[in-house]
Amino acid sequence: MDIKNSNWRIRRGKIINARQMTASEKWFDIQLEDGELDHEPGQFVQVELFGIGEVPISVCSSPTKKGSFELTVRAAGRVTREMHKLEKGDFIAIRGPFGKPFPVRTMVGNDLLFVAGGLGIAPLRSLINYVMDNRREFGKVDILLGCKSPKDMLFSDEIGKWSKRLDVNFACTVDKAEPDWKGNVGLITSLIPGVNLNPERTYAVVVGPPIMYKFVIAELLKKNIPERHIVLSLERHMKCGMGKCGHCQIDHPKNYYCCKDGPTFTYDEVKEAKKL
Amino acid sequence: MAKEKKVSNKPKVAFFDFACCEGCQLQVANLGESLLDVLGLIDVVEFREVMSEKWDKDYDVSIIEGSITDHHAEERIKKIRARSKVLIAYGSCATLGGVNGMKNSFELEEIRKYVYGDKYHYFDSTPTKAVDQVVKVDYYVHGCPVYQPELVEVLKCALRGIPYAVPDKPVCSECKLNENVCLYDKGVVCLGPWTKAGCNSWCTNNGNFCYGCRGLVKNPAKNAAKDIIARYNLDEKLMKNKFEMYNKAKEVSNEPKK
Amino acid sequence: MKYHVLEKEQLDCFIKSLAKKMKVVAPVSKGSGNYAFQEVKSAQDIAVDYIPTILPPKKYFMPVREKMLDFDLSGKEPKETAGLDACEMAIFAVHTCDLAGIQCLNIVFNERPRDYNYLLRKENLFIIGLECNKYCDSFASCALVNSHLPNGGYDLFFTDIGNKYLINVNTQKGEDFVESIGLPKAGASEMAALEKVRESKKASFKNEVDVDAKKIPEMFEKVYNSKLWEKVGEKCVSCGNCTNVCPTCYCFDMDDFINLDLKTGSRIRSWDSCQFETFATVAGGENFREERSMRQRHRVYRKFKFPVDKFNRFFCTGCGRCSRTCMAGINLKEILKEVAEESKF
Lengths: 276, 258, 345
Fold this sequence. Notes:
The structure holds 3 protein chains of 3 kinds.
Chain A lengths: L10 E10 L4 E8 L11 E6 L3 E6 L10 E6 L3 H6 L7 E8 L5 H4 L3 E7 L3 H13 L7 E7 L8 H9 L4 E6 L9 E2 L16 E6 L2 H13 L7 E4 L30 E3 H4 L6
Parallel strand pairs in A: 7-8, 7-11, 8-9, 9-10, 11-12
Antiparallel strand pairs in A: 1-2, 1-6, 2-5, 3-4, 3-6, 12-13
Chain B lengths: L2 H4 L5 E6 L5 H7 L3 H9 L1 E5 L11 E7 L5 H13 E7 L1 H5 L11 H9 L22 E3 L6 H13 L11 H6 L24 H4 L16 H11 L3 H17 L6
Parallel strand pairs in B: 1-2, 1-3, 3-4, 4-5
Chain C lengths: L1 E6 L3 H11 L1 E9 L2 E6 L18 H4 L3 E8 L6 E3 L7 E6 L1 H15 L5 H7 L2 E6 L25 E5 L3 E6 L2 H9 L7 H17 L11 H7 L5 H8 L5 H4 L7 E7 L5 E8 L20 H13 L1 H6 L9 H5 L6 H11 L3
Parallel strand pairs in C: 2-6, 6-7, 7-8
Antiparallel strand pairs in C: 1-9, 2-3, 4-5, 4-11, 8-9, 10-11
């Protein structure tokens, strides 16, 4: 018996552009056969490589970009390593979009502080570009960026453009650099004290590896940003995207399914979790 | 094997045996229907048990049975590794050291004397090692003997160049799904709770207990063993002996080669 | 409510008539006090007097391994189809605890986005319940969660009233079958016998944990950070038995399998367990539920706290399987007692 409305059915797409960004990250621009992905900033898709498996990947492009959407994929496991072999013109299958997006509508009219560490720039970029394309809806915008070394920086061309915009305050730092690097060296937390902000009207959106959250959030709280104004995007292994398989449940008294109740959360929602 | 087959562009696969009973190689012959499908995908270029031909070029896939128990074997496995694009450790002797590892419970000199008598120094012997304690291993097919469906899965992965993950959960996880009566309910010591799954609880499906031939899970529950011994009133020594049957070589030697 | 009557000696006829229409599964003895639902051909095969089976009947609703998608990579672009392999089947002698378990799963898989594999498969299943007149063993806690009595979820429901079964008909499908084999309607004496059974059950089915079930979610609010979970974690084997045998656990894994032609294959859903070491691990290696204590706590909260917040019901049906199957002796009733004590209820 054929299940026409099965939620396991895939959406067919084509890779219209692909580029190796760093040694471990590759970028893909994807066009779907059935039209727009129709996502919101912060959502993710499941990428299916038939015969290998499925992985959840954050959409890194803004919905304001029409015609295609973008993914940045780190080769970390069996599926993502295979995915790196895909090139322009190749077929790709996805399900989604899934998940609760960043609260863009509640953020309207407020100042925004974006903090991205490492691959965290990928999901955050969907929001940053959305804000750039709707810039007058928001107050002051600060972008803080951290990565391991200058060569690990993702979207460096685009970041260069952000840094030149007059309506954006931009700072970045690297953990380690060659002597010819002129920018900051140090942890991303070191950038936060220097940001001039009004805590009551600021939303801080933080995306990075689990280890980063603890320290960045501590700095933000020192700045008196309310817990419910700190927005995070958490990483878990979503296997179904539909709030059922159970893998992505957060170890928290509220039993959030990261794929459905998240991946974006405010800090006050998830602060009781031992690991963010 | 016909000459024309040798020039085909199918992957060249060779079987090699070291210290073992060769029972795992027999499992290939026991593949039954899927054997023909497997043979449709590969060229077997060396397989001492069934053919006399040798291959003088590189191997796409080498399948190694047996553990490494003397200096000659160490040199030989290193040479095979150098000629192999992909190397599969096949069967408990190769993946863990297996029952040959029981040798490591004794002083080497003593056990050599016991086995070979006073001329023992003519017979080289080293502590038993699993293949990955000497050379890098790309894929593991655990088991004594190997479980055929898993062999087929690993072969498919090897031929497609994607990793195979041995399940890191206990045999119970499969045994329960097969609705076997728990061996502990029958008062029998079973190593299922600590042994890696992937065999579809082959032994317990057939009324036997788990001997632990696939090796321990990464984080075996040590405390639970005490609770289980207490709950079922079991002999602690018997349980320890059962653990040593397959896991001795891994216990004493170094980490896998990268 | 409609009731019919079946003489006990007619049970074989009943099973055989059913088997003519569809596959029939029922509890069968496996020895050493273990039972399993298996295909049966006659009443003789059935262990009518059984304690909860090794696996609950959820295995028919959500198979251990289930194909969600077929794919074919031989063409220029992959082709895929989503299908369902299911046959009509009757599940006979389902205890009330397991009926409650199926109801829990129905709720979960009906939640959007819906799981059509589950929902469509379920339509093929004819469920015949069987009341427990006796208490099964000390592991059960069905009276605590009130699942020792029928609360719907069946087509037909059998109660042993001596030399007869009284059959409660709950669906048209059930009615059609009962009519087709010409079972007589129940009379006043049979209804009185049912009352008697229910009355006598009051004496043997008593709240096993001695706490007010309504207070349980509140209790759990207080013990999230308790040391008690470390004690449970120390014992745990991480074998996943407790979740595999649970009638309301439904977590699963998805895997791609390719056939030996290396061109065709399928996406398979298989049962998974939050107790496994790798369950909450991500590709980078981070494990978000690393300790056994965290995993055991999670399991218990998934029965008594989280589903109450979400669906306003316990996801423990009191069947006792998790405690019965745990080789290391982790006992759910003991945990509940400790939770009650620590939270001072």
